[in-house]
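Supplementary Methods. Inverse-folding protocol.

Structures were first reduced to a discrete structure-token string of length 239. This string, shown here, constituted the complete conditioning input.
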């Protein structure tokens, strides 16, 4: 990375010691970010001179940030996006189908957990800081800011495979886990329905039933058995 580019990214880089211990990424089929188990995560554009190609490095940086959060963008970006909250990441993943970014294949996206403690050399940026300092409020759609600004981070170029510390969870696994967390019993058929909403149910209450009373059985007769006789058995042979 050339000197002026490094000065630019250093200016907005989020301090490593202030990063969350874990970051979370939803990796889906149509994303530009490449994920391979032996090489980790890699942005589609890894050029080190990307900021400044137009002659204005600051404007190129701003545009790259905006492009990262614009699904209509076709230009390759140098960033990879993350969430700082696992639950937020899961909810966002579950909405991909609603937003037209995912099909009905239950395994077309998965969740990755990133350990940031080993990533001191990776350039991270906090989205809320970039929006405020670069004055991007009118250049990034409001619905995107609402979904991402509170806890979103982006990094430059790549994440090594060793920092991906948790086995990926698929969309179906997350739906099942969400149901389990809410102490609900959800059938497989319900989860497969297009209209299934894991939040649309009453929490399970194990006390919400009448205790079993055997005398309620119309066929129950407490006298209808022989009394127990402890001597009424053959002695065991010991050998």
């Amino acid at each position: 990375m050339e000197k002026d580019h490094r000065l630019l990214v250093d200016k907005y880089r989020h301090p490593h010691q202030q990063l969350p211990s874990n970051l979370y990424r939803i990796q889906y089929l149509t994303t530009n970010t490449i994920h391979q188990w032996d090489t980790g995560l890699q942005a589609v554009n890894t050029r080190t001179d990307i900021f400044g190609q137009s002659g204005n490095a600051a404007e190129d940086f701003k545009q790259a940030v905006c492009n990262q959060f614009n699904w209509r963008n076709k230009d390759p970006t140098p960033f990879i996006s993350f969430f700082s909250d696992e639950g937020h990441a899961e909810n966002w993943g579950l909405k991909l189908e609603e937003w037209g970014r995912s099909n009905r294949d239950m395994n077309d996206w998965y969740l990755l957990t990133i350990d940031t403690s080993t990533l001191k050399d990776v350039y991270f940026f906090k989205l809320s800081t970039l929006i405020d300092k670069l004055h991007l409020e009118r250049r990034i759609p409001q619905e995107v800011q609402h979904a991402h600004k509170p806890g979103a981070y982006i990094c430059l170029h790549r994440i090594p495979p060793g920092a991906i510390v948790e086995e990926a969870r698929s969309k179906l696994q997350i739906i099942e886990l969400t149901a389990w967390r809410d102490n609900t019993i959800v059938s497989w058929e319900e989860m497969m329905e297009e209209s299934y909403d894991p939040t649309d149910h009453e929490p399970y209450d194990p006390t919400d039933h009448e205790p079993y009373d055997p005398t309620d059985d119309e066929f129950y007769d407490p006298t209808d058995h022989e009394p127990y006789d402890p001597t009424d058995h053959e002695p065991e042979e010991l050998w």
